[in-house]
Design a protein that fits this description.
The protein has 189 residues and is an all-alpha fold. Helix content is 74%, strand content 0%.
Length: 189
């Protein structure tokens, strides 16, 4: 992927780094490798980032802001019922293949405190948004909390747990999950 040097900016480095991280792993997040992929020299990196530590932190912040904060802000602007917005969220998670980034960021967070801070920030922000949708649907108490936690865990980790197992019936499974998460259960069971 060659990038026009005149349009290359900080986000170009971060977007590529995040994609390489998800596709090829953390070992490939090397300045030389990224510069080659962008069609620039190492000097371009240092024009945008003072050091490797700042770059690593910037990747995590970019992931948090681009794939969570901005995405949730757009969803908050959406029209429709909470049930409709939840279905849109389920579809966006799958369409944008967001869990592939979650998995690598969570793995990286195990030994990088700055990344761990961003993962925690993302988890909180997602949790509050998902919880607000379920609360708007009328769920309360333990039902609200458990539904929110299970939804968030499933949608962040499903590729690691199931791979492409459900891919062939994707739309059917989206609707089943949506139905599962939006229907009340008898708490006396």
């Amino acid at each position: 992927m060659k990038t026009c040097k005149s349009r290359l900016n900080r986000d170009s480095w971060l977007a590529l780094a995040l994609e390489i991280l998800a596709q090829e792993g953390r070992a490939k997040i090397k300045i030389e490798y990224l510069a080659e992929r962008l069609g620039v020299t190492r000097g371009s990196f240092y024009a945008h980032f003072p050091d490797r530590r700042d770059f690593n932190n910037s990747i995590a912040v970019y992931w948090a802001e681009t794939l969570t904060s901005k995405a949730l802000a757009n969803l908050r602007l959406g029209k429709g019922s909470a049930q409709e917005r939840l279905l849109i969220l389920i579809q966006r998670i799958k369409d944008d293949d967001l869990p592939k980034y979650d998995i690598v960021m969570r793995a990286w967070a195990l030994d990088e405190p700055l990344v761990a801070d961003q993962v925690e920030r993302v988890d909180r922000e997602r949790y509050e948004y998902i919880k607000s949708l379920f609360a708007e649907m009328g769920f309360t108490g333990n039902d609200l909390e458990m539904r929110t936690m299970i939804f968030q865990a499933y949608h962040s980790l499903s590729p690691a747990l199931f791979g492409s197992f459900f891919e062939e019936n994707r739309f059917k499974h989206e609707n089943i999950r949506h139905q599962f998460f939006t229907q009340k259960i008898d708490e006396n069971l």
